[in-house]
């Protein structure tokens, strides 16, 4: 708390007068906070907002005279000039009316005059006191964003706009009205004001009015010379409505000579009477504000502020160390400007209603409001999409549609609101996070986000464990799966009819793109607060649909519990052996060079093996290999399928060696080289990002880098997994569902023979071969089993005879016969497939065992190829989707299960049906047993599956050993 300046005696000339537009703040404070009530039922939301505003103002102004000016009755002298003045304005909300008196009481509790006068508006009183203060030689600051007060601005009088946290001088008035402050009344007289029912001149807006006034000098001259105006419509409107213009001028012109009954001298700054103030705060049960007052005003200061003795002039206090040019001179309550309506769609988006929070008091008010509301939207702005490389720049929050804020924390220099080289005002990061931490970790307050997993990771790096959470992206994903994307911008346009500000609009693109910490605060506010606002509206719109559409269980039992587990997994990352990657890269490079030499030698010509065009010419023109086909570009096709066909049929060694070269090239560029660059220098680990709402079936996908497609089917690909290692004293544990989709096919298609085989633990592929081909299991040719395996897995992906023939290298007729024999032996499979396709055509989606909807756009497409593709997808989606649901259920349960068991294992990766853990060596056996049990029991209690699920475990020093 700044030390008080020497008291100024009541009669002494004022130096700096603060005139607060109290009436404007009442409505802003009312709409800013949730409907709060005292235990006796009295509404006090607006009172709380106003109280915090005034306390903040008194702490941070150097004014020696201060007063809060209020409107009195609705009607005043202007209604005698124009009966319909403000006739369109609705009556105050019933719950606000009892708060008017309490707000006046709050003002007096701070020992500040509360001024109002019958027959005059607050603006007239402000104009009058400003005139008196200037006449006494004082500077005046009008704390308001009201455009009607801009006519008062001059060298001695300026305003402070709490909406944008910036002072308003002549330049800002010119920017808004196009004229100097002394001409504002004339412009308003012409343009009128629909809100206050000021008529103006039809057809003339602010821009045209400014042009006319700048041309003719003033309103009277303009009206006298209206006949000279060339535009007929404008000329006629001015001539016919001249009286309306003059009446409008009388309505908007503020009276500067109101016969006020409270002199300016009575506005002298007085010391707080803590007894009176605390009594007021306790009566209204503003506990957070009470704590704030008591923490700032220690016992010694409280003793100084006892009520003045009878007959003694009241003491006055100023704060010389803080000046009113500080943009933080207004609190959160004063700068909220949300509309009264809270409907997610009907409330208009208005960036002017968003608040820039740059001081701790404003932030505390937002925290208190969120605590009272029980839920808040939270969004972070950072310097990177990779959470472990990102620096926190700011946080946005929203409480109601249209009511949002942005808290800058890490912005650098520059911006429209700043002088060159000056850093923006922002709360110190540690102070802000300390203030936010209780809210973000409060189990009684729901934190809502769009892809909130990212924000959980960001807050985790700051030591904050955010819970509980809701995610609009995942709510949308559960509702409409693969029907459309689930990014915020797409959802906003789809459900709200609003196109949000694009990230590129505030950061730029290409080489000129800047990170968010370089974005000017005004642009950052508009962008970040809008994101929070949109997210809140989407939540209000989409969350109720989960119950209505019977999808709440999918969200609450699968998707929502998974968020913290995935966030933790991403934060942990996986350790990478960089020297091993370097060794593999060098090995691949050497072998590629040798293959290049061999290929060129065998081809008898020097060419670029990596060029498909040159390769095609060598294969089909130079070597004259059969089957060359040119595409639209005139180049030969040289895809993997073409090369594999050539390698099999031509007998020439070049196609096979090119395939080997391509494999090594891809492994080197995509994995061994790229993964080295992905190692986080701070952690020595790779931190992938798992997309929770990217696939049609509910599967997770991995990116930056993609760790789900590390090759495993080839020896060369498996080598890369050697570079994924455990920390010293730890082991990697891999736990993988065995044949889960086949097991689910036996369950969902109801195939008794397969169900029984799984229950007995038999070799399912050998059994299939035996039953389909009539061959005894004992002594079975491995090739026959291989064909049965291909059919088993192919069938659940809707494989065609052509596809099976290609996979097995057999004639299409033979493949067709295999499939028909399979269906004959297991008729339930075909029935399941037809039933599933019929359901998809009728509903547009298929469902998993747990009720997830997997949308199938194109299932009724007129194009046969696209329709057939979607039919195959529809067949597999319930199986793949159910498998995804099961492993997600397991993942959501495992962190708590491990914690309850006192085990320190950390989940690192999910790769489709496999989970990878890092486990202390001494806990490997216990952890493997626990994870296996949780994974095998994951469907329960929601579903009882007759076919047992088997999770197989493996342990090693690296991923290759563990798998």
From TrEMBL:
InterPro entries: 3'-5'_exonuclease_dom, 5-3_exonucl_a-hlix_arch_N, 5-3_exonuclease, 5-3_exonuclease_C_sf, DNA-dir_DNA_pol_A_CS, DNA-dir_DNA_pol_A_palm_dom, DNA/RNA_pol_sf, DNA_polI_H3TH
GO molecular function terms listed in the Swiss-Prot or TrEMBL record: DNA-directed DNA polymerase activity
EC number assigned by the record: 2.7.7.7
Isomerase found in the keyword field: no
Keyword set, alphabetical order: DNA damage, DNA repair, DNA replication, DNA-binding, DNA-directed DNA polymerase, Exonuclease, Hydrolase, Nuclease, Nucleotidyltransferase, Transferase
Location of the 5'-3' exonuclease domain: 13-270
Catalytic activity: DNA(n) + a 2'-deoxyribonucleoside 5'-triphosphate = DNA(n+1) + diphosphate
Pfam families, A to Z: 5_3_exonuc, 5_3_exonuc_N, DNA_pol_A, DNA_pol_A_exo1
Superkingdom assignment: Bacteria
DNA-directed DNA polymerase family A palm domain boundaries: 717-923
Domain 3'-5' exonuclease, chain residue ranges per copy: 354-547
Family (UniProt): Belongs to the DNA polymerase type-A family.
NCBIfam families xref list: pola, PRK05755.1
PANTHER family for the chain: DNA POLYMERASE I (PTHR10133), DNA POLYMERASE NU (PTHR10133:SF27)
UniProt function note: In addition to polymerase activity, this DNA polymerase exhibits 3'-5' and 5'-3' exonuclease activity.
Oligomer status and interactors: Single-chain monomer with multiple functions.
Identification of the protein by name: DNA polymerase I
Originating organism: Dongia soli
């Amino acid at each position: 708390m700044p030390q008080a300046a020497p008291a100024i005696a009541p009669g002494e000339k004022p130096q700096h007068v603060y005139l607060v537009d109290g009436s404007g703040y009442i409505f802003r404070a009312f709409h800013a906070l949730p409907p709060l009530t005292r235990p006796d039922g009295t509404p006090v939301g607006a009172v709380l907002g106003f109280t915090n505003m005034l306390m903040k103002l008194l702490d941070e102004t150097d004014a020696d005279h201060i007063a809060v000016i209020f409107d009195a009755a609705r009607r005043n002298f202007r209604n005698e000039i124009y009966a319909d003045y403000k006739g369109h304005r609705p009556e105050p909300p019933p719950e606000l009316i009892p708060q008017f008196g309490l707000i006046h009481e709050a003002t007096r509790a701070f020992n500040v005059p509360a001024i109002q006068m019958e027959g005059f508006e607050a603006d007239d009183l402000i104009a009058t006191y400003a005139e008196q203060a200037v006449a006494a030689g004082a500077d005046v600051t009008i704390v308001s964003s009201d455009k009607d007060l801009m006519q008062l601005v001059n060298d001695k009088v300026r305003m402070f706009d709490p909406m944008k946290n910036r002072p308003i001088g002549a330049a800002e008035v010119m920017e808004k009205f196009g004229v100097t402050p002394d001409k504002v009344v004339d412009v308003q007289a012409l343009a009128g004001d629909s809100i206050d029912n000021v008529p103006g001149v039809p057809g003339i807006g602010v821009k045209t009015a400014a042009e006319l006034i700048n041309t003719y000098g003033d309103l009277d001259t303009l009206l006298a010379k209206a006949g000279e105006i060339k535009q007929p419509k404008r000329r006629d409107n001015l001539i016919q409505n001249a009286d309306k213009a003059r009446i409008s001028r009388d309505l908007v012109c503020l009276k500067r000579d109101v016969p006020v009954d409270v002199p300016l001298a009575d506005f002298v700054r007085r010391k707080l009477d803590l007894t009176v103030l605390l009594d007021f705060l306790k009566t209204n049960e503003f506990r957070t504000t009470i704590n704030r007052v008591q923490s700032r005003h220690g016992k010694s200061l409280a003793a100084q502020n006892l009520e003045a003795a009878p007959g003694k002039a009241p003491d006055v206090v100023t704060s010389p160390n803080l000046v009113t040019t500080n943009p933080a001179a207004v609190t959160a309550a004063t700068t909220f400007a949300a509309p009264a309506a809270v409907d997610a769609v009907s409330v208009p988006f208005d960036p002017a209603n968003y608040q820039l929070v740059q001081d701790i008091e404003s932030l505390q008010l937002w925290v208190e409001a969120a605590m009272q509301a029980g839920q808040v939207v939270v969004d972070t702005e950072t310097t990177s999409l990779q959470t472990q490389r990102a620096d926190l720049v700011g946080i946005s929050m929203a409480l109601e549609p249209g009511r949002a804020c942005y808290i800058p924390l890490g912005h650098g220099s520059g911006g429209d609101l700043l002088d060159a080289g000056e850093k923006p005002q922002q709360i110190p990061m540690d102070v802000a996070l300390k203030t936010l931490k209780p809210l973000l970790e409060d189990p009684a307050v729901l934190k809502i986000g769009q892809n909130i997993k990212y924000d959980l990771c960001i807050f985790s790096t700051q030591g904050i464990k955010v819970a509980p959470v809701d995610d609009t992206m995942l709510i949308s994903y559960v509702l409409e799966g693969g029907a459309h994307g689930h990014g915020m911008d797409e959802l906003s346009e789809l459900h709200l009819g609003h196109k949000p500000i694009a990230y590129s609009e505030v950061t730029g693109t290409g080489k000129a793109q800047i990170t968010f910490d370089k974005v000017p605060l005004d642009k950052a506010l508009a962008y970040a607060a809008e994101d929070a606002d949109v997210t809140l509206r989407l939540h209000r719109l989409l969350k109720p649909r989960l119950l209505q559409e019977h999808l709440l269980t999918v969200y609450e039992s699968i998707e929502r519990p998974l968020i913290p587990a995935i966030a933790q997994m991403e934060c942990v990352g996986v350790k990478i052996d960089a020297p091993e990657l370097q060794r593999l890269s060098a090995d691949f490079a050497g072998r590629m060079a040798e293959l290049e030499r061999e290929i060129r030698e065998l081809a008898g010509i020097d060419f670029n093996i990596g060029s498909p065009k040159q390769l095609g010419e060598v294969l089909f023109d130079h070597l004259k290999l059969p089957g060359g086909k040119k595409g639209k570009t005139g180049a030969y096709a040289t895809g993997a399928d073409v090369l594999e066909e050539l390698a099999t049929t031509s007998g020439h060694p070049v196609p096979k060696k090119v395939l080997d070269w391509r494999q090594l090239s891809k492994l080197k560029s995509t994995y061994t080289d790229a993964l080295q660059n992905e190692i986080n220098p701070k952690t020595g680990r790779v931190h992938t990002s798992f997309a929770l709402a990217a696939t049609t079936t509910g599967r997770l996908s991995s990116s930056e880098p993609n760790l789900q497609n590390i090759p495993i089917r080839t020896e060369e690909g498996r080598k890369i997994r050697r570079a994924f290692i455990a920390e010293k004293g730890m082991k990697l544990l891999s736990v993988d569902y065995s044949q889960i989709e086949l097991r689910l096919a036996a369950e969902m298609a109801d195939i008794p023979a397969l169900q029984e085989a799984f229950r007995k633990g038999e070799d399912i592929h050998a059994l299939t071969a035996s039953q389909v081909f009539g061959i005894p299991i004992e002594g079975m040719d491995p090739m026959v089993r291989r064909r049965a395996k291909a059919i088993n897995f192919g069938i659940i992906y809707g494989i065609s005879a052509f596809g099976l023939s290609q996979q097995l290298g057999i004639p299409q007729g033979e493949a067709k016969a295999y499939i028909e024999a399979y269906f004959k032996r297991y008729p339930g499979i075909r029935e399941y497939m037809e039933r599933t396709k019929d359901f998809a055509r009728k509903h547009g989606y298929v469902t998993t065992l747990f009720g997830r909807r997997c949308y199938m756009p194109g299932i009724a497409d007129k194009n046969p190829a696209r329709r057939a593709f979607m039919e195959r997808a529809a067949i597999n989606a319930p199986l793949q989707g159910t498998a995804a649901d099961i492993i997600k259920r397991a993942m959501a349960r495992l962190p708590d299960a491990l914690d309850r068991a006192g085990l320190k294992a950390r989940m690192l990766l999910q790769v489709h049906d496999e989970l990878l853990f890092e486990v202390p060596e001494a806990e490997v056996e216990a952890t493997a047993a626990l994870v296996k049990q949780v994974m095998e029991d994951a469907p329960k209690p929601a579903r009882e599956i007759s076919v047992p699920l088997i999770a197989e475990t493996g342990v090693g020093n690296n991923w290759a050993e563990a798998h």
